[in-house]
Amino acid sequence: MKTSISLKPTIFVIFGGTGDLNMRKLAPALYNLYSDGYMPQKYAIIGTARKKLTDQKFRDVLMEGVNSFSRTGKVKKEKWSKFAESVHYTSVDVSAPETFKSLKDDIEKYQQEFGPGTQVVYYLAVAPSLFPLIAKCLSDYKLAGDEESCRIVIEKPFGRDLETAKELNQLLTSIFTEKQIYRIDHYLGKETVQNIMAFRFANSLLEPLWNRTYIDHVQISVTEQLGVGDRGGYYESAGALRDMIQNHILQLLCLIGMETPINFDADEIRNKKVDVLKAMRPFSPDDIRFSTVRGQYTKGWVEGKEVPGYRHENGVNPDSNTETFAAIKFFVDNWRWQGIPFYVRTGKRLFQTSSLITIQFKDVPHQIFPAAVTEHWQQNRLIISIQPEMSIRLQVQAKRPGLDMVLNPVDMVFDYKGTYTTETPEAYETLLLDVMTGDQTQFMRADQVESAWELLMPVVNAWESKKSLSFPNYTADSWGPEDAEALIARDGFHWFTLPLNKD
Ligand code: BG6
């Protein structure tokens, strides 16, 4: 946790320096950290890739990325020039390990210049197939350092099943210690997601209600309007289950389900999250049949434009069995949550882009109001809207003003826009700063990754081994397959959405 900033000199090595992730996320985040005064006094950013580029050319490429994707808009000339003085480029070809020699020379040069205590961060913004190669080269060239001086950051997917995740973890931990490894799940860096811990554990009024006695069910719905776009190749081997549920959504579920940590220590918090994953009910074949739904989009119209079905997207097999939608009912078998369903759904090309967590409370134990007064009755709900609206709403009943007693639901709203004037940092700004300060709270530990895979493997295997005969089964711009409505309707509930906010 950061309260004040005094950062050690840092050498930031980005593998995949000319790639999409660096352009869209890392470079804008590093530049914004610099602009807001959150970069160390002494730092160097070394981009690496196979291409041969001069420092100047690399800086120009990065500037284009920042100009196109930064939340703060185009760079300010003077700020950028100062920031870019510390940006460098070294060509490294992972298939020719000897090229690591020049990277080693660069790192040593900055280590000498910056003096004792300099830390090195390796960011692997490359395809997962390159993780093992790069990690091995860092080891062979004695660049892996120790817990104090060196960290490695990797992006999901962390394996594509339990076995490959274990292999990756074993390889990484044979070279680095767990304290050096930062597995990024960018959802954990989102401001509204970080606020879940604050909301739950900094307010005494919630805890007494936060259990099976008062909560009816929980929904986590992460829907996207976009299709797979140009990521068809990657998505074919992932699908919604691996791409969103194994990581982002299960992490959200852990934040809602976890017990109170005894302090804000990274491992204590991660222990409490792993406990949730370990308590989750394993899937039997019947559960897979009745508690999971998969979908794939077909063509449709989005905002007046016709969009292709998934099977016609670039890089996608015309006969693909990959799911672009998944809905699952989970249970957490412990004292707090026994019998309380957690419904999750996610998908591409859905009607609305929105990430919502809804906690529906149980109904009043006894109704004192006559039926005529309660026509609009609704159980209390707490709605945490992660994006695009950033808010927390508590829906309660109130008396409508007037001479008659009529009840209707109203929202008590904490809305970021109306409450704060400060700008919200991007998830990557938060997470990169955490890497530099050495705070692993918002990063996935090996056992979290493996527990999430372990839970989902029966579903992964069932969906892979049995082709869906109904695919494609939902139209672009809809709320997904009908079966997903049935999944929750069977229990007497419906998926909750917020009205579209047009401003
Ligand atoms: C990524 C997934 O991890 O998260 C993408 O690979 C998905 O498929 C994205 O679109 C969603 O992130 P966000 O921050 O836009 O909700």
Give a verbal description of the structure:
By secondary structure, the protein is an alpha/beta fold. It has 15 helices and 19 strands. It folds into two domains: 4-155, NAD(P)-binding Rossmann-like Domain (Rossmann fold); 188-489, Dihydrodipicolinate Reductase, domain 2, CATH 3.30.360.10. It is 35% helix and 21% strand. The strands form four sheets. The protein has an eight-stranded mixed sheet, with helices on both faces. Helix 1 (20-35) crosses helix 2 (55-69). The relative contact order is 0.14. The mean pLDDT is 94. 6-O-phosphono-beta-D-glucopyranose is lined by residues 224, 243. The site of 6-O-phosphono-beta-D-glucopyranose has 2 residues, from loops.
Q: How would you sum up this structure in a few lines?
A:
The chain is an alpha/beta fold and 503 residues long.
